[in-house]
Amino acid sequence: MTETRERSKEVQIWFGPQHPGITGNMSVQTWLDGDTLTRGITHVGYLHRAFEKLMERRLYIQSFPIVCRICVPEPDTNEWLLASALEELSGLDREVPEKARWIRTLVLEMSRLGAMLMVLGGHAGSMGLGPAPQWMIALRDLVLDRFEELTGGRVYHMYIVYGGVRRDLPEGFAERMEQTLKTIESKLPLIDDVIFGSAVFRKRAMGVGVVPREWAFEMGISGPVIRAMGIPKDVRKDEPYEKYAELDFDVVTEEGSDIFARAMVRRREIQQSIDLIRQILARMPKEGPYCAELPNMLEWTIPVGQTYVRAESSRGEMGYYVVTDGSKKLRRVHVRGPSYVHGVSLLERLIPGTNIADLAPLMVSLQVCPPEIER
Amino acid sequence: MKEILKEIEERFGPIWERVQRPKLAQVGIEPAKAVPLLTWLKEHRGYVTLVHLSAVDWIEQGEFQLTWLLGNPETEERLMICSRIDRENPAAETVSGLWPQAVTYEQEINEMFGVSFPGSPRQGVPFILEGWKDIPPMRRDFDTVAFVEKHIPGREGRKHIDTRTYIGEKFGEKGYLHD
């Protein structure tokens, strides 16, 4: 009887799919007691485009325009994972030229930088600090300018291909990239003042959305969320790929495991990405091929096999489980995005006890990206 | 990774095993031994993370393959446990008691492949699809083209297949194309 009475106090509210605070095309069904959330269920499916199924019906080369759409702010990780998995299964990985590996590392880090600028603005925007996200988007656009000149596309690039990349760096690219990095760096102190110096941000971010440390490994938490617990986990260090093993950087960690710590990890990783891009450009080979000799893509078959490859996206460990059957098409590809854990199981466990006004900042801090949940 | 494969061989007698990369190994195991193996790896060998759970449709052999990918955060090694089940009335033991996030993976596989995990919460609850009445769509025998032709009304295509002619007619003699 008591339970029924307690239940009757609850109000059910849908957070999304149309809501400025929701992280993309998804919704959270929530139950409220006063202004405190008692439970929540993540709902996806608004954006399902059957990417994994489509790839089973296409030639290997035709999958690049599909995979980049799995994460709009950061498409290049997906391109690299697909290329890397099939290169490993076909043996093409031994042929990838040195210069292509450096360019790929550059593109992956530029992609991380652009995504982190966007999400750090999202942190502020979800708490009503209006100007910061607009400044951050403007800075991200400078990175997109460089992507446009390098790949021809601003949002989707389809630049990383099997065996290397699609074209060489344009003349004078390194200088223009350096100018972009300087511009971004010059604005960061202002961003620090507006976001991390804001009493509103500090009060609403500190001690909110705390993820218990004991959930870290069992739930498969990764990226800034695990690093904000003080745990130095980063795929770029744990299983280095491309040229990351040759670069000088430390894994960024913070203590507190709350929204503030996650935002601070991202802020410091923006600087880290800037430093890494400079290192990469300084060591970029001047000469040499940027792509291997490729087989006829219309007739390319890959022997029976399966593998799992992973990379550190701005959101955490992004992985591709790929199965080939000796034919010209994929037998199966399973995209394992960090949001699958962060946006469903972890979010649902964090919701009880959270104030409704903190739900949007919480979701931004977990950097939930629905397309990689429903693929 | 060879040490852990040797131990698995002695304790569980897998069907096959291989080292894919220095930090990635694969093991094929009978369905009945899969969950005991996963439990042992989690409880005694440090593979505490369920990275993902996936299914593959081997329609030619009449089997589904379930793949559990485990991670060891100490060594950063990954272990892929593969098990094949019958494609007719497919069912497998749930691991939601071992890993809470497995509920979502099992819910999705149930929806997309029709594999059931008795005892797992949210079985039969839609995850991505809504009001789906056809066969599970990730099965190889699900015909995507036939589905689209049946459910999405077609539209009349343009008369010309030559882009230059089409644009020329629509926008003037020269169109927007360069000579």
SSE topology sketch:
The complex is a heterodimer of chains A (375) and B (179).
Chain A: H1 2-8, E1 11-15, E2 27-33, E3 36-43, H2 51-56, H3 64-67, H4 76-90, H5 98-125, H6 131-151, E4 160-161, E5 164-165, H7 173-195, H8 199-205, H9 224-227, H10 235-238, H11 259-283, E6 305-313, E7 316-324, E8 330-336, H12 338-350, H13 359-366, H14 371-374
Antiparallel strand pairs in A: 1-2, 2-3, 4-5, 6-7, 7-8
Helix pairs in contact in A: 5-6, 5-11, 6-7, 7-11, 11-13
Chain B: H1 2-12, E1 16-21, E2 24-28, H2 31-44, E3 49-58, E4 63-72, E5 77-86, H3 102-113, H4 144-151, H5 163-171
Task: List its salient traits.
heterodimer; A: 375 residues; alpha+beta; Cytochrome-c3 Hydrogenase, chain B; three-stranded antiparallel beta sheet; B: 179 residues; five-stranded mixed beta sheet; 5 helices; 30% helix
Structure description:
The complex is a heterodimer of chains A (about 375) and B (about 180). Chain A has helices at about 1-10, 50-55, 65, 75-90, 100-125, 130-150, 175-195, 200-205, 225, 235-240, 260-285, 340-350, 360-365, 370-375; strands spanning about 10-15, 25-35, 35-45, 160, 165, 305-315, 315-325, 330-335. The relative contact order of chain A is 0.19. Chain A has a three-stranded antiparallel sheet. In chain A, strands 6-7-8 form a three-stranded antiparallel sheet. Chain A has 14 helices and eight strands. Chain B is α+β, with helices and mostly antiparallel strands and about 180 residues long.
